[in-house]
Specification:
The chain is mainly alpha-helical. The chain has helices at 7-16, 35-42, 61-72, 76-84, 115-132, 140-153, 158-173, 181-188, 198-201, 226-233, and strands at 50-54, 106-110, 244-247, 252-254.
């Protein structure tokens, strides 16, 4: 295809050197390369052309899809079509959406990958992390839901995640309502805040309103990372029932 001048030289080089190893992937070549230069380029996996996308913790599905589209050039509508069919990913029947199942991480997707392939890889990563943590299949939905609340409520200090997890666990285990403003806000569609009004906290039509409804919300409210998953699974031992940030600049929180 014009990359090298001669097929024969490339082929003879391959026959003469059994140490040459190729890597699967997409490589962007120049035209007019020597056989040696072309082979050297192809045998270096660092030269593979990939789509690299970083998904931060705590994002909702819509924001995750926007980052995927921006980072790959695949139309947003294609991602939206894929996530609209939750049945193909074998999510729990009670899951209202793909929320919580697109694991936050830095991904290197194969250049030219489909929206379906990328979403599948992210769901597989979520399940792999849950498997590594030893979470039984029947407990995963509840754990992801609680972890997503911890992710949104705990702020930026990783040391606080386990304590926030303990606050919510103590409330649930002792018959309290969860009373998370983050869940209420998610249910109202105000996805960029955890602050709510008296009227919003009293609205029983909001199924994510944990001030009115007992137990966990009906589903995750974002994509929890592994720190939040661990905090939900093994919260820090302690007697706490409340937490409040006392320094918004440093993130200091009192329990």
């Amino acid at each position: 295809a014009g990359v090298t001048k001669s097929f024969d030289v490339v082929y003879e080089t391959l026959l003469a050197d059994s140490s040459i190893v190729f890597y699967p992937g997409t490589f962007e070549m120049k035209t007019g390369m020597s056989a040696a230069a072309a082979l050297k380029y192809l045998t270096n996996p660092d030269n593979r052309k990939v789509w690299k996308v970083t998904i931060p913790e705590g994002l909702i599905v819509g924001d995750v899809l926007a980052l995927l589209s921006e980072g790959t050039g695949v139309p947003l509508a294609e991602f939206e079509t894929v996530v609209s069919d939750t049945a193909q990913f074998r999510l729990p029947e009670e899951a209202p959406s793909m929320e919580g199942y697109l694991f936050p991480a830095t991904y290197e997707f194969e250049y030219g990958a489909t929206a379906h392939a990328m979403i599948t890889a992210m769901v597989k990563e979520t399940n792999a992390r849950l498997t590594d943590l030893g979470v039984p299949l029947e407990d995963r939905y509840a754990l992801l839901t609680l972890a997503s609340v911890i992710q949104r409520e705990a702020g930026s200090n990783p040391d606080d995640f386990g304590k926030v997890g303990r606050v919510f666990t103590n409330r649930l285990e002792n018959g309290w309502k969860l009373q998370s403003d983050a869940t209420v806000a998610y249910g109202t569609g105000n996805l960029d805040t955890v602050w709510t009004t008296d009227a919003e906290r009293a609205d029983a039509s909001n199924l994510y309103n944990t001030y009115v409804h007992d137990g966990l919300p009906v589903g995750p409210i974002g994509a929890p990372g592994e720190v939040a998953m661990r905090a939900a699974l093994e919260p820090t031992p302690g007697p706490w029932y409340f937490f409040v940030p006392v320094n918004l600049k440093t993130g200091e929180t009192v329990f």
